[in-house]
Amino acid sequence: MSGATTDLTPAQRERLGERLQAGCAALGIAPTAAQHDQLIDYLQLLLRWNRAYNLTAVRDPDEMVVRHLLDSLAVLPHLLGERVLDLGTGPGLPGLVLAIVAPECRVRLLDSNGKKVRFVRQAVLELGLANAEPVQARIETYRPGEKFSTIVSRAVAATDVLRVRETGLLDTPGRLLLMRAHHPEVDAAELPTEPFTVHRLQVPFLDGPRHLIAIEND
Predict the structure, then answer these.
(1) Using one digit for the tens of pLDDT, what is the confidence trace for 4-24?
(2) Euclidean distance between the first and the last CA atom of the chain, given in angstroms as a whole number
(3) What value, to the nearest 5°, has the Cα angle with vertex 22 and ends 17 and 28?
(4) What is the pLDDT of residues 109-149, one digit of tens each?
(5) What's the pLDDT at 5?
């Protein structure tokens, strides 16, 4: 990418690292030193690209730690199996973050937006993530010929995510995870017709609730 860059100073990296470390401790997650550095490197790369490509509306690095890194990490205990599909990954959320801290998982990062997929490809390359694969495709036409044990989505409409049950992408057993700010009962459109569980996520330093709708494919 050409143009001006936004690099974190050593003092900024240290401050953000301390915030990330405190948040991970509150979540009961213990990333290695290398994974910790990768998460901060990802944040710096996102800041740099965001100047030109407007990948995320969150521009404050401290808020990025909370709303992007810790929010994504809160989903980690709910993953099932090792084959993960992130629908509508955008700039790699939550899939890229999960790929960093769960190297045993193979994470597919799906989005139809070309500039966002280009960013994710560059992030995967620079971070050296052999277990993450970006793919530019639309949800309704994506047929990779394999199934995923967990399908997760943070930004895609619930109605679109729920349709993947009909595509054969979700394995048996499998788990479909929808990340939402509000409890699904607030919006009837968020309510699946099949049985589901709602987990209230406690994201450190975040004001306001986060919820995870989990649907099991037994």
Answers:
(1) 446 889 999 999 999 999 999
(2) 44
(3) 125
(4) 999 999 999 999 999 999 999 999 999 999 889 999 999 99
(5) 43
